[in-house]
Amino acid sequence: MKQPSLVTVDNPSDHQARQNCSALEDGQLFFFPRTPFEFPEKEQQFLLHLRRSDSHFHKNIAYRPLQDRVTGAGSLSSEDREQLHQILRSYSQRSIGFLTEFLEPYASSWKLEYASFRPFQEQGRELSTRKRNDLLHLDNFPTRPTNGDLILRFFTNINPSQPRRWIATGPFEDVVQHFKDKGAVRWPRMLSGWGSLKYSALQQGRRFGLPLTARPPYDAFMLRLHHRMKEDERFQQDCPKLHIEFPPGSSWMVFTDKVAHAALSGQYALEQTLLISRKSLLSPQQAPLRILERLSGTSPLNDLFRR
Ligand SMILES: [Fe+2]
Fold first, then answer.
1. Which of 53, 144, 274, 295 yields a CA-CA distance of 20 to 30 A from 225?
2. C-alpha 262 to ligand 1 mean position (Å)
3. What is the span of the domain harbouring residue 107?
4. How many domains are there within the chain?
5. How many angstroms does the Cα of residue 20 sit away from the middle of ligand 1?
6. CA of 208 to the centre of ligand 1 (A)
7. Which residues on adjacent β-strands are paired with residue 183?
8. pTM for this structure?
């Protein structure tokens, strides 16, 4: 069990895919001083200019690769919207193309999630505690359960002059045990009886298009942990931290549901998310789900959600 550390990649071809996966699973962050694929200057300039000219951009702009669709683009002209769409599609395709080789063992079973453009300044945003990005947290999908698969995020800083400043802490085991010892979280339990029925009913409702969330125990636990972490001022202040500055033009990636992190400042970043099947991990025992099983002594957490 180690604190998170940084693996710097100057030349991706010097690195072996299996070793890359192992380092990620071990809770390390990969840092690429230069973004490891083409990202034309004119595309970056378009994104930077877009922010300045549209006051409606106060949220992420998302690109959904599976539907080839952009959401959250504000009130753009159809011409700008089309260009934005093309740029986000290209970023998504290039980052996925790069990762397909760099993390080859995962590629056949990963699930493509959204890409996003983050045009706002992270420092000083007026958000509720649970929504703040500048407080240490572990990521989760509140409305789309991962069932124990891992959230991998690849980021790129396109700010022309300012770094993106992060902090990270860990290891995952220590973070979880800390909040368990404080009584802030309870171990996830297998659903049975009424709990299983309720879960199945919610799932059924979702299939019929009702705005319901069916959250398996693992995802419910991770969401609670996310909230408790952000709400704990002492933890935020006192835990050991790795401070990182990602300069303009650089990229980085990490399992954001295994490595606790926060973005203290920075503006204009892109990001591609992939959901990595826990079955494709080289060391499945390093998955947060397995770690929780070990710590809690319950196994499996719930057969209902095994795939
Ligand atoms: Fe995050």
1. 274
2. 6
3. 6-305
4. 1
5. 21
6. 31
7. none
8. 0.92
